Amino acid sequence: MEQALIYVVPALGLVGLIVMAIKSAxxxxxxxxxxxMMELAGYIADGxxxxxxxxxxxxxxxxxxxxxxxxWSGTAVETSSPVIxxxxxxxxxxxxxxxxxxxxxxxKANVRTTQAARTSLKHALKVSFTGGSxxxxxxxxxxxxxxxxxxxxxxxxxxxxxxxxxxxxxMEKALEVLAGFSLGAESIALxxxxxxxxxxxxxxxxxxxxxxxxxxIPEDDVRNPATIADNVGDNVGDVAGMGADxxxxxxxxxxxxMVLGREIVSIDNFGGIAPIxxxxxxxxxxxxxxxxxxxxxxxxxxxxxVQHALNMGNWSSIVFTGIASFFxxxxxxxxxxxxxxxxxxxxxVFYAIILGLLVGTLMSIITEYYxxxxxxxxxxxxxxxxxxxxxxxxxxxxxxxxxxxxPILVLAGGIMGSYAFAGLYGVAIAAAGMMATTAMQLAIxxxxxxADNAGGIAEMSQLPEEVRExxxxxxxxxxxxxxxxxxxxxxxxxxxxxxxxxxxVGVAGIDAIDIFKAPVLAALFVGGMIPFIFSSLAIAAxxxxxxxxxxxxxxxxxxxxxxxxxxxxxxxDKCVEISTKASLREMLLxxxxxxxxxxxxxxxxxxxxxxxxxxxxxGGLLAGVTVSGVLMGMFQSNAGGAxxxxxxxxxxxxxxxGEMYYKKSEPHKASVTGDTVGDPFKDTSGxxxxxxxKLMSIVALVIAPHISxxxxxxxxxxKVEIKKEINYEDGKKVxxxxxxQIKTVD
Length: 746
Fold this sequence. Notes:
Layout: H1 2-29, H2 35-73, H3 83-117, H4 121-158, H5 169-215, H6 227-261, H7 274-294, H8 306-332, E1 336-339, E2 342-345, H9 346-371, H10 376-384, H11 389-402, H12 405-435, H13 438-460, H14 465-508, H15 518-559, H16 572-586, H17 588-604, H18 614-649, E3 654-656, E4 659-661, H19 666-707, H20 715-729, H21 734-745
Antiparallel strand pairs: 1-2, 3-4
Helix pairs in contact: 1-4, 1-7, 2-3, 2-5, 2-6, 2-16, 3-4, 3-5, 3-6, 3-13, 4-5, 4-6, 4-7, 4-13, 5-6, 5-15, 5-16, 5-17, 5-19, 6-7, 6-12, 6-13, 6-14, 6-16, 6-19, 7-8, 7-12, 8-9, 9-12, 9-14, 10-11, 10-18, 11-18, 11-19, 12-14, 13-14, 14-18, 14-19, 15-16, 15-17, ...
């Protein structure tokens, strides 16, 4: 039974990849439009791939250094191995490949969506969403296939081959080596997200400030030299960066649950590994239910509600997953379980999963409310645009700050509720339940940039007005779904980080993190500061790159006669080059902060204070960065999304104090300024927060054995010692006596 189920996990990952290939082939077969459309799409595809290759080259140097350090560190403690370096490399390659899958399909689907929009909104939605679903299934399929296959390998190598128990140090070693896969995925994700975000916003801001504000030409006008770089940026930031981001989030969530599952002694039909296998099984089934949910994403005609269609697909996959989890939990887990002295039942685990799905749904709904057109928050920004640029900025900042209240309350309720159900394992499995439908979530997210590119190609190709109207409908919905996706991602990051935090505490051998101790409190403050300096570096990088872009666009308008009369072609490649160089240069320092800070605290303060260990200080650092990072992520992503849709509202016309205002009006110009400020908020620093907090937690988990207060401390070591004593006294009653003794020791 155990052998069958353990192989089902990577098989489900393969199912996702097979369906992905089928959908990708369907998109490729769609019509591409006329020669001009194909030429413009070619510029975008070439620019996107040029950036990706340049980014991979830089990251390959980082990967080599990280592999050498991890291989060396794997020899230093008993519960690790040099194999962790190989695990890291596989995670990094899979993460990069996930981004490539998204980039490749998005640059094919964009022009095909434009062509589809020449016939109907229904067909345009089908092409763009199918393109997005290729990315969603590719990311989820690769994650489940990679994690499931490596777990089988390491479980056999470190546990089964030596006849060890599931709850001992051998399984700890297997999961520690597996953590390298997550570390590789999150490391690449951070650089991809930050680098892609800097690229896309430098081009976007430069194109807006000179094109729309100064020259008074449309957003995606072919005369704007930065317009190709802007459309390339949608792919490298919102597609490749987002794909790597959610790949890392998906893997980290599953891993955190597995690490905590190791601490549960389970009398089951799977050799005692049911609590470890459960999150992987949920992820695999989530792929299947996401595929089913994708069939619900359709509309009848041009008057159909695109947002409702996407919601139907999302909610149906969530409902299917929730129903299936009941039967999976009842089938896999024993009636009663315990973790660190906290007793719970298998039904409590099911309730925690349902709570996780509910939290994810509520987070998406709340985020949609704060960023969608026609809602009170966006209307408040529109109204205050009437009195100028400054009041628009004030309104957007206020909306962003207000938007943290309800999500934090929902998140806090989810944490307390899932903990009440099943302790720390409940918190982790709630996050795993929330992330189970990542394939669908990412399909909805990736659909937005494809629709945005489609609108850009329609504008640059000077297609009939009804084509742009259809792509604008998709683009507006895409902005809202992108914001909802970011809210969902930051919520899952918070739950995942708490689970990783709990796993770190167990491996590092500390019982509590006492902020009354001055060094711990100091580390807490430093952790709270990191998201601010990280955001500052990312936003400043966008500003510097945007200045270069603005100067280049102005130069071309000034020095190339005939651009404004369509008689001369702009030098698009110069703008693409500016964004590429700036993003690669500026992404390194923010990434280094996330990777190096936990190492500096963990090793730099080891044995410095008599009463406080560096592990406890590192715990304080993680607590600070998690709370601050979650708030900063929500604030920036929601403020940016609200500013963006406030600007887009003027395209159809808005009523302010009884008067109608449209594009090129003074309130519209104020909204463009707000959107320009919000661009790096929502697409660079904001969405990077969830990777930042998870990456720091994973780094801490990887170094935990090296800074542990005792060689094998923590709850599990007590269980192992008890088992040895009972083995010595009465070998026939090992399992029964172990379960009785755990409660008294923990």
